[in-house]
Amino acid sequence: MLPTLQPLLHDTTVLLRAPSQAWSAGDGTIDGRGITGIYHSDIRVVSRSVVTVGGQSAEPIATVPSGAASTVFVGLLRGLDDRTADPRVRLLHRRTVSTTGVSESITIQSALDTPVSTTATVQIDSDLAEMESVKAGIGGVGVPFDLSPQTATWGRGAVRASLHAPDATVTDHADGGIRLAWDLDIPANGSVTVGWTIDAEDADAVVRGTTDDARWSVPVVTAGDDRLERWVTQALSDLDALRLTTVSDPASEFLAAGAPWFFTLFGRDSLWAARFMLPLGTTLAADTLRVLASLQGTESVAGSAEQPGKIMHELRRATLSIPGEGVVLPPLYFGTVDATPLWVCLLHDAWKWGLPEPEVVVLLPHLVAALEWMRDYGDADGDGLLEYVDATGTGLANQGWKDSGDSVQWRDGTLAEGPIALCEVQAYAYEAAMHGAELLDHFGVSGAAEWREWAARLRTRFHESFWIDDPAGAYPAIALDSSKRPVDTVTSNIGHLLGTGLLDSRQAALVARRLVSPHLNSGYGLRTMSTDSQGYWPLSYHGGSVWTHDTAIAIAGLARDGFTAEAASLASGLLAAASGFDYRMPELHSGDAASEFGSPVPYPAACRPQAWSAAASVSVLASTLGLRADAPSATLGVSPMTMVGALAVSGLRFGGEDVSITVNTDGEVTASSGASVQVE
Length: 680
Prior knowledge:
This protein is α+β, with helices and mostly antiparallel strands. It has 12 helices and 38 strands.
């Protein structure tokens, strides 16, 4: 018996409008294998949907998307055609996903001079499998349908689904599931259209979709190199479809982490995505901050890793059990070491981009609680650094952004033992303490001096503990292990240190040089692990692959610290990768070198779209322009890089006003609108 395997995603077609999504083959067929299916609230409500006309499937010739939620699958019906060379009968199969399900139609178009009579059928089945079972390669068992004329209903527990197919005959299918059938007469030189809808609901849902327009500005980008423009355009369409709210707070939106596996609220992912999106307005950031503040920890609960002041990791409809891995996570799980300082960083940055001060004031008690968590719980052993360890045995073993089991390893490939103190988490904590102190001072809340002193001690401890001497130049360890030894693997984590203030200028220069070395820079972005490490493999999830958001963070830090040539080099690599993925950047891709592969190699199980990969396009745009926001002083600094030729951007938003910037091929700002723009 073959082992169950995680489904591959790279060659499938996805349509989405959170919390619904549809995955199919390129011709629209859902055959029940792998990831294919129609999902709502992480339940596969349709596991098979196969269209035939005249007893035959159409021969696919094109898949034509219209935004993130709708596609037309175009196929030929040569069994109904004449024998001339030109195809004269074709099928247009349109599928559109909504927040509650899917609507589909098939149109048969004929250019024949004689009418055609035929039968169109759709075979539909459902296994109501949970997403984690599908991810593990384990399908469900077919469920029974209740039939009535032109309708069908089915469900299990809290999940119910219904189908409506006007003018169809709905019957049980011999192979299981149901069969929709239409007897059709297609007139000469004419067409016929039939359709059906599937709606689903989940009484146990903790998140829901939104049909309102996205509340961020949509920039118009025109560049000599159009890849940045195309990436931003595709990304904003995908981000629109990833918007969710919680059931308890339907007015506040956040971005689902990614399709198909992470279609819910993730603290770290939602925070980074909202941070990247700040140049388009502060509303998404404000909503994300409020949603996470409403779930902030208030007590110590070992099973969920909750602690007072801590920001959660993920929110699910039910307990999450990962088959074969021994991981069991409660519906509200706090197993992350970095979301709490990142929440503080987002609050500060949103304020700098113009989040209205009354909205900041309301969140200040949560800010204080988050800072106190870093001191009282995040630094569990009192050594002045933040570390993590899973105390339950059933939670996540690694609790930074690289959360796979083998992500923290020595250069010889052996795994580091926890508690683990990650290098980038110290940078987030330092930045959070310093920027938190700035907020406390500005709003007249006591305690700022204490947090500056705490940050200074952390910085000193980092400089004493993390640096590793090397003939190629000293570098920061990825982490300290349980014995406080610096774990010596060279990784992309060091890119997160830049721009935070944790490093001095000499150290920043050493990191910048490492990031663009051929060991880390693949030409398609930043590898997560250096090629000179024993554990490196280009298709390792966190041990050699390239993550778009990870590279974007490094680019932003390089630009902030003045390393514009290095930032431009990594940004050019992401643009090359974006082109190779038709501008829908996946969660991650292979670390294979651009010098050896003419296009980026997919990581076949990567989410796409994914929120922080898509939102990274806006961050790269901001880094290209060299934007530095300071709303309290009504100043938006601009210091462009020259990597995409002439560049004109309108529709940015700073301090509540629209901003436009035009840059020539020499990187000079030739025009701008918005009184706050200041060329640096």
